[in-house]
Specification:
heterodimer; A: alpha/beta; five-stranded parallel sheet; B: mainly alpha; 19 helices
Amino acid sequence: MASPEVRTPKETGEVTGKVPGISTPASASSQTWLLVLRRAYVPVLAVLLTVLVGNWLAAVTERNVEEKTEQLNEREAIASIPGLSPADVAETQAVLHPAAAPVKRTQLLYLGDSQVFSRPDAPPGALNTAQWLQVLLSRQDDQAVRVRIGASPGTDIPEMLLKTVAATEQQPRQADIIVADIALAELRDLGVRSEIASLAGAPEVNSALRSLIAANPDLADADKTLGPVVDPQEPDSGEQKTDQSSSGKTSGKVEERLADRMEDALQRKAEGWSLFAQRENLVALGLLRYAQWEHRLLHITSDTRIPTPTAPYRTNLQVLDLLIRYAQSHNIHVILFFGPVRDRQPNPDAPSDLARMHRDVTALCERHSVTCLDYSHAVPEALWADYSANQRGAFAMMAGQHDFYHYTEEAHKTLAEKIVGDAGAEILLWSGPAKSNPAGSNRARSTQAPPAQRRPPQTRSNQLPVNQAGGQQ
Amino acid sequence: MNLLSLSYLLFVPLVWVLSRIVRPGKGRQLLWLAASYFFYATWSLKFLCVLIVSSLVNYALGIYLRRNPSAGRLWVGIGFNVFLLGIFKYLPVWSAHLGPGHLPTFLENVILPVGVSFWTFEALSYLFDVYREEELDPSLTEFCLYLAFWPTVLSGPVCRLPELLPQFRNAEPVWDDIREGARRIILGLFMKTVLSQMLGAGMRPGEGVDFGFNQIARGWTGVDVWILALGFAFQMYFDFAGYSNIVIGTAQLFGIRLRENFRDPFLSTSPAEFWTRWHMSLSSWIRDYVFMPLATWRPAVWWRHASLVIAMMLFGFWHGADWTYIIWGALQGLFLVAHRQYQQLERRTNVRLPALVATYAGWAVTFCFMLLSWVVFRANDLAQARTMFGALVHFSSYKHFVLPRNFVLMTIVIAVLYFVVAGLRKLAENVKQVPFLSRLGWALSPVVYSFAMLSIVIMSIHKAVFVYLQF
């Protein structure tokens, strides 16, 4: 075997591995050792440091994640809340674990962001709005509706649409009724997280989204936003511009799969090293630390005003329009409501932005004859939460400040009661035909903009007429 | 197999060890050729077939041309390679524009073999060199290896046979090659996996250059356009220069020195200088094989300028059959012409700005122009480019921005850091003269490499794609 040092430094005239300022020792063997040491110093120490620091970072991250998981697990244990019967408890558990519950009832997909389930004050096992909604509806008809939580923190409208389409296209179908909490905070961004974007990878979901986009060219901004989700650039394919997942042009992918499989196997092996396994958590932790520093440096507090840029706001509205069109073309009933807003100033949501949202969303609901409820003021000041002085985790930088998005457990119950009071009868009415109609069988023919021959808009105490929306702020 | 994959990190040492077993010469060339074909086959066996056919035909064309180096024979070679590019690179795009049913099915199903534009240009440069009667006599193995050499086969740098041939025959790595090769691979991975990825995809959903161009349908403000232009320019730079570092580093591990592709392009003080620092291998190819022959065709000054614009438009067209690329090329050509005119004016009037002012003004004008030209290059269509330029001249739009604040901040920080690091590098060259500081730098370098490697591992959660793979 030929050595890499076939040419010695003398022969090549190069100063290989030489550290400036260090004189050369006299003896030949010590000279060789010194050369080896000099050459090994940088790579060996760099690798050693990488391994040590990597392991330490992984351990810190792992501890952090374990703490959070424990907190979540505590929450999942349903406490013996006064007034809950064993049947109620079973219903609430089914909301948390819908996969275990049989799909015989009409499926109600409850969409929203962290407002739906966050209970900062709650003892372990306290119920969220979706669970209370399940309990209250089951008490009226215990075989009518199965509530499923489709909410996750920071869910914006494109993510809501993806969740809706995924739930609808699945067999058996998991969305016959949609109840969606519309919050201004979620109309500011347009990003779709990779774990939600991956829903569009399922062929039936992808095809449904493509048809939806193709059938609604008038919603061009929404289409543009969804485009990259439906047509993600194929990493490593080298065919990005020419082979946008059209079925005929798949040459190169069959062969590539072998390389992919090899790479996947190596990645799995690499995850044996804790740093590899903790990469995602580490990035999340890094972002969190960044946010904490950002808050500290820029003096950002929970009541700092957050602007609502027009471009993403308008696009979110278009996506909401698309969501309603999709739902209606698949015989899915939609109920939108404006999520509670804390009525104190200063407030991160500008009154003018809230008024604009009320006006635009209500107009959208009227156009599509969709029930639109206003719960902006449903939660009184006393039932809003504040961040504790010892706040930890993601909101540690908000310690001791007012929480403008999350409320107490009692408020969750209040909100669920309001929904049942305003729309319960309607939901139970809708659940009738759906039960007789096997889930998943009521496929629609077209996903195009619906004609104006729908039922007249609902009139409810909480439903906001278009011209009064702004006046409520 | 992607250059960013773990498989590649195993593949390279494996080939390296095998290379140490096999003696330099024919045996090692065959080993490298086998490794290169295996590497390319992991993308697609069909792609490999196209590459092999192109290699054989071009080799035969070379022999044919060497026997009688006539323009007619050269045109046969050019015609073959242009035909190859037309079929595999441009036809799929035109087919997509035309829609289904306009072309025969077998033509509609043609897809772009990765790297075809790079190795076709390498083949063309070989034919040009043979036509110019350069002393080139590669064996078939050497020529096939030249086109398929695995570090360069995907996206260049566009190599020349006279540079590689002697190295294929005698290359033997010394310790400095290995050290420098490893350093450049780490640097390249850091540039691509960390910096380019952060700019392109952002740190969170709803951020990043791709989001700004693809998902914000309209409503960009002037600030947004500048930030997106800045972000894309640096994303491209870190992406392609990072890729080039990995490729050059890999080749150097085997004792092969490839030509540089980037040399601090954003420090250029004129467009002419910029094109000697950005994608140097392709820009010099265009200069040597397109601009020079065109410009010397007619002596008129206007023709030399026209040649410049034509050459740069061809440069743009090389990226793809899209008006945005062609207009981007034309803009570059016009800017180069404007710069020449300015130089002539200076000479004629003998009025010159003070050196320092000229340097900074030249840098500012060049940098801003390059940023804005990237908007045309990156825009999804001309309408988008027009809308974005509209925002630039709409001065009331500068009061706010729609891009996420974090992304704006990150882009500015990365751009500033680029210039700080460039400055520090210049400083470091002087520091090398001071033994204590030099020793301190050497002692601390493991910390720097360790930081880079940790960042690469952590950021490798994202499946990264090299932008230039699509060209």
